[in-house]
Amino acid sequence: MIALIAAAAAASPLATAPLGAMAGGKLQTMPQGRYICSLPGDALGKAWEEIPDKDFVIDNGSTYRTEAGTGTYLLTGRQVQFTRGPMKGMAFERISGGTLRLLDENGQPGRVRCVRSAR
User: Fold this and answer.
1) Hey, where are the domains in the chain?
2) CA geometry: angle at 46 spanning 42 and 52, to 5°?
3) pTM of the entire structure?
4) Which of 46, 60, 81, 113 is found 20 to 30 A from 30 (Cα to Cα)?
């Protein structure tokens, strides 16, 4: 019985999440809709340069989808950690309800931001 409980716990998305994600606070979900990702532009051109291969859609619960497939994420406090699927391992800082900033491998905010465009 104990081995069965341990196996079920190991299969849980929380078991595969980094400790920092779990320590961030109460689990939440992102607003549903399409998130368009971009880099800042410059004064001589567009204000933002879209990165279509980074776009994703937040579906029901803690699920998302991209052109490459579906997966799950955890939102704890201000950190969004993609735990399964094509974006597994990517982390974002939640700037506002529908705006995320991609975190680099050291957990520092990068230049890429993703903004919810519609429900």
Assistant:
1) 18-118
2) 110
3) 0.74
4) 46
